[in-house]
Predict the structure.
Amino acid sequence: MKHKILLVDDEEIMLKYLSRFLIKKDFDISTAMNGNEALEIIKKQDFIVVLLDVLMPGMDGIETLREIKKIKPMTEVIMLTGHASVQVAIKGMKLGAFDYLMKPFNQDELIEKLRLACEKRIFNEKGIDAVDIPEMISNNKIK
């Protein structure tokens, strides 16, 4: 099953690059070029993870994150940030983002963070707290 990911970035080149790369890694990708567009898409579709740029004109990534969490609180969000906005990305994590990535990012690190965010979402949907997973595995409750 392909995991549905929404990419949100105001840079068209970044969206095209990420889309191609993640499609090759077997993800189902949709894109939005700003926060408002992302929210309209999220209202109509369910995404397991949103990869969200922090610095965008109009509605920035933090405001978009707040709205995503109101509309679809189970959706995991990974913030994309440039060097100057690390503090903003950390603020995003305090507001419920799963994690953040610095631009330019390592492709392997991106895939690992997406994989972990997808796993967290799937476990949450099943009512399993990620903290309980090691104990559940050792007790043969999940394999």
Summary: Helices lie at 12-24, 35-44, 61-71, 86-94, 107-125, 133-138.
